[in-house]
Design a protein that fits this description.
18 strands; 353 residues; alpha/beta; Rossmann fold; Quinone Oxidoreductase, Chain A, domain 1; seven-stranded mixed sheet; 13 helices
């Protein structure tokens, strides 16, 4: 089959003819119907310092956000059948470590991520464990089905644990309107947030943030000294109840705590390329802030919330707007350029080789 393979510890990747994958006894084989590009894929494509430190295995098939049709199942597979339309939970857990056995599979000690630690899905076909196959409504658009994984990350950031307080009537700040930040805006609006403020430097994404439901979108490079004041003005000087940091920018980290109401909560999902100084006394302790690190999705509670959101035609229509480009997977390099030149928000890859 054809696949996009990372062969060298350097920028780029290449199409190669590789052996057809065969499912193990507990795996399913997918015919890829749609894939999408994640920020992690961009890091690995560019081979930046994060990728150099994180990726241990090469050569490796890239990619992890996918939907496909099951064409073969292993002999121990029971829940998934040939012909099912499925998306992939991209974090493959061992199921036996302390964290998995105590209900915290999303932070498994030995997690392997598709396209990072093991072969991914930018290919004609891919294998995933049965437990990672999430069955979809056959009528769900393939492009939307392939971005359930980042939608799940957005949901996890908004609802980081069970029994978290209701968002109805609350004020929310989202710093960084990449695909997950945009989806988070749509999620908090759906859950009843009263006021949503976002920060974003890219005009394409800023405009999409408004479409997703942001009341105010601020460019943090314009009057940066007044950024926190402008956020507080929009929240009647109270600060925000919830802040979602999605950018990984050091300045945004300071913004979320400066703009946070005492007793508020922060979800940190953006990855920082270096150590970031923070005055914990003022930012966290004296503010009585609750801080959550967000990694992946809660398995599999978050997926059921995603399923509920996608049952709404209005939510699906809003979600579809973040897919700004659909590109044949054979033109992955061009798709990466669209993202890095800030022309695209989310790029869906169609299975044309």
């Amino acid at each position: 089959m054809q696949a996009f393979v990372k062969t060298r510890r350097a920028p780029g990747g290449e199409i190669q003819t590789v052996p057809d994958p065969r499912p193990a006894d507990d795996e399913v084989l997918l015919e890829v119907r749609a894939a999408s590009i994640c920020g992690t894929d961009v890091h690995i494509w560019d081979w930046n310092p994060w990728a150099e430190a994180r990726v241990k295995r090469l050569p490796m098939i890239l990619g992890h956000e996918v939907t496909g049709e099951v064409v073969e199942v292993g002999k121990r597979v029971k829940r998934v059948a040939v012909g099912d339309h499925v998306s992939a939970e991209t974090h493959v857990t061992d199921g036996t470590c302390y964290l998995c056995r105590t209900g915290r599979m999303h932070i498994c000690e030995n997690v392997q991520v598709l396209g990072v630690d093991r072969n991914g899905i930018f290919a004609e076909r891919a294998v995933i464990p049965e437990v990672n196959a999430w069955k979809n409504d056959p009528g769900l658009d393939y492009a939307l089905a392939s971005i359930q994984e980042p939608l799940g990350s957005a949901v996890h950031a908004v609802l980081p644990e069970e029994n978290i307080e209701d968002l109805a009537g609350k004020s929310v700040l989202v710093t960084g309107c990449g695909p997950i930040g945009l989806l988070a805006i749509a999620v908090v609006r759906t859950f009843g947030a009263r006021t949503v403020v976002a920060t974003e430097v890219n005009p394409v994404r800023a405009e999409l943030a408004q479409r997703m439901g942001a009341d105010l979108v601020l460019d943090p490079t314009v009057e940066p000294d007044r950024l926190t004041a402008r956020i507080r003005e929009r929240t009647e000087e109270q600060g925000v109840d919830v802040a979602l940091e999605m950018s990984g920018h050091p300045g945004s980290l300071r913004t979320v705590f400066d703009a946070l109401s005492p007793g508020g909560r922060v979800s940190l999902l953006g990855l920082f390329s270096r150590e970031v100084p923070l005055n914990f006394d003022d930012a966290v302790i004296f503010r009585a802030a609750r801080v959550y690190g967000i990694f992946g999705r809660r398995l599999f509670e978050t997926w059921y919330t995603v399923k509920g959101l996608l049952a709404s035609a209005a939510f699906r229509e809003k979600m579809a707007q973040i897919i700004t480009h659909r590109v044949p997977i054979s033109e992955l390099g061009r798709a990466m350029e669209l993202i890095e030149s800030m022309q695209a928000a989310k790029v869906s890859l169609t299975p044309r080789w």
